[in-house]
Amino acid sequence: MMGFEHWYRRMAHIAASSFVSYYLLPDDGWIGILKKVMVLSLLLACLIFDLVRLKGRGYRFFCLRGYEEDRVGSYVYFGIGTAILLLLFPQQIAIPCIISASLVDPVVGEVRRFSRNLSYIVAFALSFLIFYSAWLTSPCAILVSLISAAVLVLSELKKFRYIDDDLLMQIAPAIVMLLLYIILGEGVMPRKLILPLVEVK
Questions:
Q1: What gap in Å lies between CA 91 and CA 177, rounded to an integer?
Q2: Which residues, at least 6 apart from 134, have a Cβ–Cβ distance to it below 8 Å?
Q3: Residues 6 or more apart from 101 whose CB is under 8 A from it?
Q4: Whole-model pTM?
Q5: CA geometry: angle at 58 spanning 54 and 62, to 5°?
Q6: Cα dist. 3→6, 62, 83, 103, 201 in Å?
Q7: Tens digits of residue pLDDT in 10-48
Q8: Where are the domains of the chain?
Q9: Integer Cα distance of 36 and 176 in angstroms
Q10: In 3-state terms, the chain is what percent helix, strand and coil (to 5)?
């Protein structure tokens, strides 16, 4: 039976999808500047925390996996990926990539305990559903979603020592989606998913 740390990691991973609430604030004016500063500040705090953790070898952060104790934590990689998406990519690309990485990884981790092959099928199906839901208003929704889901699964398959899948699962499909947007033209982009709650005049 899995303990508290295991389920804490799973819930924290899923909760990371809430970062898309970034788009509830407008891009214009001082609020637009403030929300970008907040993203960078949170990322910087995360980096400093992990640096302190790595310097103080005697301290074990309770939710870390064993292999993370002597390397950069997965949460740092996830934070870097999310910050890049929020600050540099259009929300139609950023939102499904962040939500897919947040949800697919923990779900696949649980399914993999029973069947590795089934976990890949679940990963593809779930990520396709997320991408398709986000791109539903695009004339190329199925094509973009199939390719993006395949890239996300491939990103999760390959393990690197110094590049975590929490980064790759966000950035790899985002780059592919951006390339598809460039190749297929401006008309392929769907409508925005989240509109700001307030307007800056």
A1: 12
A2: 92, 95, 96, 99, 190, 193
A3: 16, 78, 81, 152, 166, 169, 170
A4: 0.93
A5: 80
A6: 6, 12, 30, 20, 50
A7: 898 999 999 999 999 999 999 999 999 999 999 999 999
A8: 4-188
A9: 24
A10: 75, 0, 25
